[in-house]
Amino acid sequence: MSQFISPKKIYHGEGSLAKLEIIIKEVKARKVFLLTDPMLKDLGVINPVLEQLEMQDVTVDINTHVVPEPPLSAGNEVVEAVRKSKPDLVIGVGGGSALDLAKAAAVLAENEGSVEDYLNLSGSKQTTNKGLPKVLIPTTSGTGAEVTDIAVFSLDDTKDVITHENLLADYAIVDPVLTYTLPPKVTAASGIDALTHAVEAYTSIHATPLTDSLALDAIQRIVKNVRTAVWNGQDKHAREQMSLGSLIAGLSFYNAGVAGVHGLAYPLGGLFKIPHGESNALLLPYVYDYIWPSCLDKMVKIAEMMGLPTEGKSARQISIDVVISLQDLVRDVGLPLKLSAYPIEEKDIERLAQNGVKQKRLLDRSPRPLNIDSIREIYTNAYNGVLTSV
Q1: Do 198 and 249 touch, CB atoms closer than 8 A?
Q2: What pLDDT shows up at residue 57?
Q3: Rg (CA), the chain
Q4: Can you give the residue ranges of the Alcohol dehydrogenase iron-type/glycerol dehydrogenase GldA domain (predicted)?
Q5: Buried b (16+ CB within 10 A) or exposed e, 314-327
Q6: Could you tell me if 17 and 173 are in contact, meaning their C-beta atoms sit under 8 angstroms apart?
């Protein structure tokens, strides 16, 4: 038996932002708390959202206290801001950090305590009230945060999450128009992040036929379009396909779960503040360089979705081809291939490994078990840029 969970309503496609009119009426909102990245406000990216809200004659509190890889202090600040605002509806607009903060704040504003009380690894509370209605509107094609119930927070040396179905959006609006102005590096990092979601969901031990079909679709869309979206951002078809691919990947990984890549990426963000998408992109080929023997059949299907030749080749060789192609893709979109490209020293590997092994919620979904020795090996290979299967 399996289950599949998603937001109550998902709107996707160019012009889907207009559906805010329906949502405002359904919720009967008279006051909206809008959380967004300060740069998105300054650049006018959120103007189409504000125009929709103005047409509905609602009061809007705009909050721009969003920072990348948000720490607990940022989460608590936004929670208190929502409590003070007393809105009827919370809208998050932006990348993963903005969306995570919005859904956490919408829920915790109507529950007791602070963000740290609800953390997965160290918290002691569970949300009892569903919280305020929320709309999540991504401006990147990558995080899938609009369709998950996970909010990620940076700690001193790693990351932790709040995860509960109450955090799931009531409405998700995925309008590719909001991604048209994304710069190449953000497009690349978010795009490979989405690909990582799809690949990890497909090989997760909790995968189902439904999540598999979504993951394979997402892999094919993303691999076909991410290079164009990065280097020719005005290509509307590529942008739309990346937007849809990210959404589909999000639905897949929310239900099947991600595993080793994300688990080992968390310490990179916590210790060295490497952006989440870049962390995933860098680690993706090295993690699969280690785990491919445990999921040979699925590696073959991934190869087919990536457009790689498979005829006359063994499953082993096809799997290695996938690993190489994943690294080629990261290179092609201009992202770093080695940990040593960042301010990380070889002596930091042990600390990374000790933090990475604590991410059991994620590591337990890996088709090949990951212990401290294998994690240390993966980080070492990633530091040196070595694929051992090749």
Answers
A1: yes
A2: 87
A3: 20
A4: 7-176
A5: ebeebbbbbbbbbb
A6: yes
Q: Residue with structure tokens 């009967």?
A: 28
Averaged pLDDT in 10-residue chunks for the chain of 390 residues: 90 96 95 96 94 92 94 97 98 97 97 95 90 97 95 88 95 96 96 98 98 98 98 96 98 97 94 94 98 98 98 98 98 97 96 96 97 98 96
Give the Cα separation of 134 and 102 in Å (integer): 8
Q: How many Cα atoms within 13 Å fall on the side-chain side of residue 389? A: 21
CB burial class (10 A; 0-12, 13-18, 19+) of residue 125?
middle
Q: Please, which residues have CB within 8 angstroms of residue 280's CB and are 6 or more apart in sequence?
A: 192, 193, 196, 261, 262, 265
Residue bearing tokens 């208190």: 80
**Measured torsion, CA atoms of residues 280, 163, 169, 188, in degrees rounded to the nearest 10:** -10
Neighbours of 187 (CB within 10 A): 26
Structure token digits, residue 259: 């595993």
Residues 358 and 34: their CA atoms lie apart, in Å, by 35
Dihedral pair phi/psi, residue 135, rounded to 5°: -120, 130
Rounded CA separation 68/76 (Å): 15
- Whole-model pTM: value is 0.94
CA 140 vs CA 40, 65, 129, 180, 214: distances in Å: 11, 18, 30, 9, 19
- Listed in sequence order, the DSSP H helices in 148-295 are 184-203, 209-231, 236-256, 260-272, 276-291
Structural domains of the chain sorted by starting position, each given as residue range(s) with its CATH number in brackets: 9-179 (3.40.50.1970), 184-384 (1.20.1090.10)
At which residue do the structure tokens 């997760």 appear?
204
Q: What is the DSSP letter of 111?
A: S
| Cβ atoms 163, 97 nearer than 8 A | no
Of 8, 277, 13, nearest in space to 168 by CA:
8
Please give the Cα distance from 185 to 11 (Å, whole number): 26
141, 243 Cβ separation under 8 angstroms: yes
- How far separated are the first and last CA of the chain, in Å rounded? 39
